[in-house]
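ENCODED BACKBONE
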Amino acid sequence: MRDLDKLDQREELDHREELDHREEADQREELDHRGEADHRASVAVVIVTYNRADLLDRTLRGLAAQTRRPDVVVVVDNASTDHTADVLHRHGELPLEVLRSEENTGGAGGFHQGMRRAYELGVDRIWLMDDDVVPAPDCLAVLLRHDVACLAAVREDRSGRLVEKAALRFDLRNPLRIRPKSASVDSTYPDRASMPPTVALENVAFEGFLVKREVVDAIGLPDPTFFIFYDDVDFVIRARRAGFPVLGVRDAVMVRQLDFDQQHALDTWKGFYMFRNLFVVHFRYGENPLVRAKPWLIALAVVLLSPLRGGRSEAANVTKAIRSARGMRALPGAAKAGSPPTPR
């Protein structure tokens, strides 16, 4: 009897293992089908460029080397005066569509225009990037394995060091936190190998951001009035609040060609946009009155401390910024859902 009981137990265990193996196989098959479906999705790349022809050339060469080529590459030329036109002419191997602006509308205006055009073309996904990043050859293929509304490639520098600044935590609830980004990918993980296959993100840059068409249907386009900085932050906040998850994909490699140096420019013309657009994000999306009042406290602190740090230029920037941000509390109509054309 004891031997029979053991035999029954062994048969039950074998049956359970067989079921587990079948379930794993079914899951793998489902993932394979999902990956194949995503590989069949049409993809438009949107690049915004301004007077950085040599960097743009590297980006386009990176796209030409993709194992899964994009269906169209929309390049928004923000009134460049260098040899950008020559670089674009040389890349006949890519399905380029060039939109040349009569004036420089900044990254925000460029991504607004480029995403609108990509949407008009009827593609399933839109891949946004600046002209100073180069995707690894399998970057798009890796991203398309994931059936998620918003995906981000993970950036490294030319030496292979992880430099992904995307936010794991973007805090618009705590009024005592001066900078909303309290944790980033590169502040949390020492290197790419330490990351899990995907990480949930609360904010990203438009440097390898892949978004489904349905997101544009739901929330609209990037806000062109930002000019530069925080247009990507604004867009991703809207996407997340509309219920779309955002994942960073460890194995989707994007190589950044330039160093990050923006934090040293608060007393330059860029400083005005950094201050103003940070304030706009707080005014629009602060989760309580104290957070929405925080820009006033930051502006006051910068003015009071200006003799010790940024001087008159920084004080002037923050003063103009707070005044301008007050008029941008509402999302403009051009960026709202329903503003893109509907035909597909």
User: Anything to note?
Assistant: The chain has three domains: 1-37, 41-262, 264-326.
